[in-house]
Structures are given as structure tokens and as C-alpha cells.
Specification:
single chain, 425 residues, alpha/beta, Rossmann fold, 7-stranded mixed beta sheet, 12 strands, disordered N terminus, binds glutamic acid
Length: 425
């Protein structure tokens, strides 16, 4: 989780509408049949539950949980579970639809879903989070399933929560079902390479885009917003490929060092400092963390939350390339200005698809009852990311549209043609 700069209300009004506005442009460019359009725009299932949990002090608190299945046309639905205070149904719906397009862009046989619980995990004990996770899993026993709907981590959750989810689901079925969830700890059937997979995919797509812009990674400056799982690995791997990471940020603020931040040191500092960069001495604390987005860098990686690039700051963005590590970091209103300014954007549904790609590999390994080496996982996911980038790039040239719309075109085309083969009632 990273620094959150509040966006103007109008940009934030409805994340589902913001997803739909891009979907509509792509559907029109593709000449999508109106009936298929209506099928693809509607989430196929939405489940909301109330979860009464006994807190450590003996009181009972009721939490609100959701799981939205946007589509299962390409296969079982796939997508993470988010624990955050701003979880609400419209956001979960948008995130579920993004998962459908994301899986289709990287050509893996999954539909899209997302779940969320409105809670603040930072203020809860491990026991309270465990009870909440088990209660949520129990409430979703008919929704989840290795051939039905496969959850994974997202903001506020990680391998620990996935282990509880897998255990609760397995108990209810009287057998070990590790393929019901991905992002598990290694000992429970997690995959090597899954932890760093999203950041690695961001690195692969950033390098592919830099090549198109003829930016030499050894001369490139990069700013990364958000120093959680995605941002920190993206920064580390880009640094390893020669880039100079001049700025990073998290909830404690933004840190700038013109000469480059040693990312290994920053990660080690964060890990020994309750997960935050607060007090990190390898860079200067910036007065205004939101300024990180406005730095004059070659590459900007927003890897925190939604809508951080919005109509209020987009005019001032100076990066040549934006690689979206987060889901939905650019509001629909900001797209237009970005395109006018000629900034190349590798969109979220492509740039951060490395995570779900390795989730797919984890599920494949669980079903095979076999374990791949880290090298095999990385090689295969790098190839998938590079192929997806090339396909989206070609599509953007063919239709003369930005990469974001091209990614939607690739995804919608795939899901629509599969739907037409499968048919309906
Ligand atoms: N939560 C991640 C995402 O937004 C991963 C989803 C998954 O692995 O299923 O892509």
C-alpha cells in the first residue's frame, strides 16, 4: 500500500463507470455486436455477506464482505480479495471486470472475479483477521472452487490469509483442496516466483515499452509510487536491469534521491521497520508525497491505489512512460490529457498481469501435483508478458488507438468470440 492522494470527487464517482468508459471506446472500435456488448458489460454474479466476528475484547463486530464474478466465459473466475476500509460493491465490480480483461489479455483460461471485506487489517490482531477470513470463506463455500472461482491475494491480504482460506475450504470438503486459491505459502502448494510475479511483469512490460521509445534502461530514471509487493519488486527488478530509481513512496511519504535509491536497502529497511519506509535514510523525504507523480523522470510506475492520476494533476505529469502497477491508477478523465501530451501508458490490465499469470501456474502445478523451478516459472511468465505486450502494441498500431484501448480490444475480442462459440440460452 502506498501514499494515497485524494482525487477530486468527480474522478472517483464510480469505478465501474470509469472501467465502462474505456470498455465502450474499445467495443465501438471493434464493432462489437450490441447483444454481446450487453452480455459482457454485466457482472454475472454478485454475492454480499455480513460477517459477525468476535473481537479479542469479546465484542461482536459485523463486517461487510463481497465477491463479484464478472465473467466465467473463458474459464473459472479468478481474482484477489482485498481487505480495506474503502471496499464497496461498485469498486469490487470494477476490479472484477478488470480481472476478466486482464486474464484475456495474457491469454490464460480464466474469467474474472474480485472479493473484498471492508475492514482495516492494520488495526486488527492476527486472530481477528483469521476469524474474519474463515467466516468469509465459509460464507463463500458455494462460490469458490478450483473449477469455479479461485481467489488470490490483493491489497491488505497475502499468503497468510490464503492459507486460512485454503484450510477452511479444505475442512468443509473433508480433503485438501490446494487449487482453490493461489498466492499460498510455498509449503502449502504456493509457486516459486509468485511473490515477485506482479512486479516482475511490470519490469518486463516497462522494458518492452522503453525499447519502443528508445529509452536506454541504463540511462533511465524511474519513480515508483507504492512500496508494497508490486512497487518494491518492480523497483528492485528495474534497478537490476540498470535503471536509476530516483523516488519511491509509501504511506509514510515519498523519498527522493537524484543519484538513485538502493532498493535492496530500502526493502531491508522496510522489512525491519514494521513494513514502512518511515525514517529511511537512503533518500530525502519529499515535502509533498503527491509530487512524486510530477517528477521529471523517464518512467513513472504508479503501484498503489486507484485514481491517483486524475484531472487535477494530469496536466503536470512529466514522465515519458507510465507503467501501471496498480489497478486503475489513472482516472478515465485523465486518459484524454495523457494521450494529448503523448505519454505512453502501459495499462494496468497488461502491466500488472504477471501476478495472475503466475497464479495460473500455481493452479496448474497444484493440479499436476508437481513443482516447477523458479527459472521455469520466470521464463514462462516473461514470455507470456512479452507476447501480450507485442500483441497489444500491434493492435494499437492497427486501430490507431492508445495501448489502453488496444488492450481492451484484444481482451474483448477474445471473450466475445469465445462467448459466441459457447452460446447461451
Ligand atoms: N490481485 C491480483 C490482481 O489484481 C492477483 C489476482 C490473482 O492472482 O488471481 O491481479
Amino acid at each position: 500500500m502506498g501514499y494515497i492522494e485524494p482525487a477530486p470527487i468527480k474522478d472517483k464517482a464510480n469505478p465501474f463507470e470509469s472501467m465502462m468508459s474505456r470498455f465502450n471506446i474499445a467495443a465501438e472500435a471493434l464493432g462489437l455486436d450490441e447483444q454481446v456488448y450487453n452480455v459482457l458489460k454485466s457482472p454475472s454474479k454478485q454475492v454480499s455477506v455480513s460477517l459477525p466476528i468476535t473481537m479479542d475484547n469479546g465484542s461482536i463486530r459485523v463486517f461487510e464482505g463481497h465477491r463479484v464474478i464478472h465473467s466465467n466465459i473463458l474459464g473459472p473466475s479468478k481474482g484477489g480479495i482485498r481487505y480495506a476500509m474503502d471496499v464497496h460493491l461498485d469498486e469490487v465490480k470494477a476490479l472484477a471486470a478488470w480481472m476478466t480483461w486482464k486474464c484475456a489479455v495474457v491469454d490464460i483460461p480464466y474469467g474474472g472475479a474480485k472479493g473484498g471485506i471492508k475492514c482495516n487489517p492494520r488495526e486488527m490482531s492476527a486472530g481477528e483477521i483469521e476469524r474474519l477470513t474463515r467466516a468469509y470463506t465459509n460464507a463463500m463455500l458455494d462460490v469458490f472452487g478450483p473449477d469455479r472461482d479461485i481467489p488470490a491475494p490483493d491489497m491488505g491480504t497475502g499468503p497468510r490469509e490464503m492459507a486460512w482460506l485454503m484450510d477452511e475450504y479444505s475442512r468443509a470438503h473433508g480433503m485438501t483442496v490446494n487449487a482453490v486459491v493461489t498466492g499460498k505459502p510455498l509449503v502449502l502448494g504456493g509457486s516459486l516466483g509468485r511473490t515477485e510475479a506482479t512486479g516482475r511483469g511490470v519490469m518486463v512490460s516497462a522494458l518492452a515499452a522503453m525499447e519502443k521509445l528508445m529509452i536506454n534502461p541504463y540511462h533511465a530514471t524511474v519513480a515508483v509510487q507504492g512500496f508494497g509487493n508490486v512497487g518494491s519488486f518492480a523497483a528492485l527488478l528495474l534497478e537490476e536491469r540498470g535503471c536509476t530509481i530516483v523516488a519511491i513512496s509509501d504511506i509514510s511519504g515519498a523519498y527522493y534521491n537524484e543519484k538513485g535509491i538502493n532498493i535492496k536497502e530500502a526493502i531491508a529497511y522496510r522489512d525491519g521497520n514494521k513494513g514502512t519506509l518511515e525514517g529511511f535514510a537512503g533518500a530525502d523525504l519529499m515535502d509533498n508525497a503527491g509530487e512524486l507523480l510530477l517528477l521529471e523522470v523517464d518512467v513513472l510506475v504508479p503501484a498503489a491505489v486507484e485514481d491517483v492520476i486524475h484531472s487535477g494533476n494530469v496536466e503536470k505529469i512529466k514522465a515519458k512512460l507510465i507503467v501501471e502497477g496498480a489497478n486503475g491508477p489513472t482516472s478515465a478523465e485523465a486518459d484524454k490529457v495523457i494521450n494529448e501530451k503523448g505519454i505512453l501508458v502501459v495499462p494496468d490490465i497488461l502491466a500488472n498481469a504477471g501476478g495472475v499469470t503466475v497464479s495460473y501456474f500455481e493452479w496448474v502445478q497444484n493440479r499436476l501435483g508437481y513443482k516447477w523451478t523458479r527459472e521455469r516459472v520466470n521464463r514462462r511468465s516473461d514470455r507470456i508478458m512479452k507476447d501480450a505486450f507485442d500483441k497489444v502494441y500491434e493492435t494499437s498500431q492497427k486501430y490507431n488507438v492508445p495501448l489502453r484501448i488496444a488492450a481492451y480490444i484484444v481482451a474483448i475480442d477474445k471473450v466475445a468470440s469465445t462467448y459466441q462459440y459457447r452460446g447461451g440460452y
